[in-house]
Amino acid sequence: MHRITRRTFVAAPAPHVWQLAGDFGQWHPTLRIYANGPEAPADVVVTIVSRDDEAMTLSYHIPDPPFPIANHRATILVEDAGHSCSYVTWQADFTAEPEVLQELEDSIGDDVFAKALDNLATYAQDEYGRQQVTQAS
Prior knowledge:
This protein is α+β, with helices and mostly antiparallel strands. 35% of the residues lie in helices and 36% in strands. The chain is built from 3 helices and 6 strands. A 6-stranded mixed beta sheet has the order 1-6-5-4-3-2. α1 (14-21) crosses α3 (101-136). The model has no long low-confidence stretch (mean pLDDT 87).
């Protein structure tokens, strides 16, 4: 089993980030979650395996991955970093041929996870900032 992990800092409280993390459509350009069938076009469809709101973890798998992998399971974890900030970790475990591991590290780790985490951080920070301004008004 191989693992790819990316982590980012978010200048917004963990509960706020957690609310957004499970809604891929808000911050991820290609993932959509389908509970009872397709409702919108997506490049990649994911199936939720587990969700723990208290632990702020969401695990899913991709039934038909667009990469040469098998036995895929990914987890998004939101952690409190104190001072109204948080960390978000996204990791995927999978099997793959050894000769494609570096390519997968680049394509999944950098092109998918890192870019999407940047989107999530920006979206969460912007939303949280707007809330703070509205409350101060």
